[in-house]
Amino acid sequence: MSDSSDTGSNRSETQQIERLSTGIPGLDEILRGGLIPNRSYLVRGEPGTGKTILGLHYLTHGAAEGDTSLFINLEEATADIEQNAAALGFDVSDIEFLDLSPESDFFAGDQSYDIFESSEVERDPMIERITDRVSDLDPDRVFVDPITQLRYLSTDQYQFRKQALSFMRLLSEQGATVLFTTQATEDAPDDDLQFMSDGMIELGYASTGRSIRVPKFRGSATMDGDHALDITDNGLVIYPELTPGDYDQEFVEEPISSGVPEMDELLNGGLDRGTVTVISGPTGVGKTTTGTQFMKEAAGRGERSVIYLFEESEATFIQRSAAVNIPVDQMRERGTLNVEEIEPLATSPQEFAQMVRREVEEKDTGIVMIDGIVGYKLALQGDENELVSHLHALNRYLKNMGVTVVLVEEVSSITGEFQATDVGINYLADNIVFLRHLELQGEMRKVIGVLKMRTSDFERTLREFKITEHGITVGEPLTQLRGILSGTPEWTETPASTER
Questions:
Q1: pLDDT tens digit string along 81-94?
Q2: pTM for the full model?
Q3: DSSP state of 428
């Protein structure tokens, strides 16, 4: 595989605009590089969605880069913020605080303030503190949490909007880039602030769990969609929605051998690089072993593969593989195979896509196997239709990057009428390889065949398939056996045509 890659044109265009990092890599990716400096951005969401944590990322990253960072806290006391920040591992020692929380005397009484009119600024101690602190510090980054507390200083909505606009203008004139949060309620929505802001970052919930989206961002394109977000012991971790069109990599179109000559004959040389193959069949027929066989052969060439286990434990997989002459442990030691067991309902599809991206882009992984599709849909968070859509995007990305994909799918029927897949993913597959149990003369046997290969010809006959302690063996074409796919095989005297 080639080490060089080209991203989409929209990304290269937006990179020409000067950017300011938010301190969260995933959010910077969504914003195509970060915030545009000297603008104001609204961070909104329900309580507990991570708004203040986002602000802490923004300010501490700036302080570490040498920027002057100012936290204007209008609700929570500085001591509480520092305590919560420490619990998440944030060093706020270099952040300046302007504590205007409700405990302050400035919020006592019923009087209202027109806080940024020059004729009033001298009379109001609160305004004096804000203007003096901003003028003295000349901050590069400002986080206001929450700006809607200013409503308590306003006689009506008009006055509040005027105050908020004046506030933003003051900070902008000082050259600051501002993040501000809101506390929207049914009686006091934040629609006016949405219009005033240069951009909006919304934190909330989707079917896949916590989410973040950017519905507004003046001056630049952003990544659309509901992106996944986790609140961890180290703050926010964001997993952007995968956009396959942003990724492309040159690769050599060549067949990938299984290392089993008879299987390669069925596949006209092997699986073509950069294609998606579904290996389907009932339980116990050898689907995972078949997929892993391609990885074993690739390891001999020094090529790295990864398998994601959704339906089997890592220990069981390693034990089973060793029993059929697939040395998983040795492959892992040499760095030619990575095995990841996915914990059920602990991972969003966006996070899983990021795991796969790291393998491909950082470790040059050439083969990715997802075992299996039913487990993927049960283990990841989200409804079924969305998960299939995420799987489609992931496969498109992998194909664009020249990665060979193997999807293992279990069908429910052991014998009987043939069914390629149960979950309707045929359209994802360039190739479909199927394995079947059959009963022949009172003995359980297995067969392998190819239903579809989009990029090359293939053998139309079926072959007997065995898994022994020495590995996979595939027999000669079963040209005199009919009715295999119907589940009622029988021998005939006349060989079937082996035309390809």
A1: 999 999 999 999 99
A2: 0.81
A3: G
